[in-house]
Amino acid sequence: MSAMATVKLVLQILLVILSLLLTLLILMHKGKGGGLSDMFGGGLTQNAGSSGVAEKNLNRWTVIIALLWVAIIIALGLMTKFNLI
């Protein structure tokens, strides 16, 4: 197994883990009002417009994980395009 094949495998495993983590982080966010979140009881929460420290940290982690996710997808795409594997 070549070094580039090992890098590709590690990136693919990391992509799966980050995909699951990103899905969980997105589902943990509060609904911002309107739409489907109100249908399922999202409109009953108090202070839906304000975000506390936990919500801000959740937002930060979601953005960081999303940027890593995109970077890995671009890296895998470039590796495939230039036949580095």
Give an overview of the whole structure:
The protein is an all-alpha fold and 85 residues long. 69% of the residues lie in helices and 0% in strands. Helix 1 (3-28) packs antiparallel against helix 3 (53-81). It is elongated and about 50 Å long. It starts with a helix and ends with a helix.
Strand content of the residues, in percent? Answer: under 5%
Number of separate structural domains: 1
Mean pLDDT level: 85
Low-pLDDT segments, ≥5 res: none
Largest beta-sheet characterization: none
Distance between the termini: 10 Å
Order of helices and strands: HHH
Global outline: elongated
User: Care to count the β-strands?
Assistant: 0
Number of helices: 3
Instruction: Give the C-alpha Rg.
Output: 18 Å
The amount of helix comes to: 55-70%
GO molecular function: protein-transporting ATPase activity
InterPro entries: SecG
Family: Belongs to the SecG family.
Protein name: Protein-export membrane protein SecG
Short description:
The chain crosses the membrane at residues 61-79. This protein is mainly α.
Layout of helices and strands:
Blueprint: H1 3-28, H2 36-39, H3 53-81
Helix pairs in contact: 1-3
Overview features:
mainly alpha, 85 residues, 69% helix
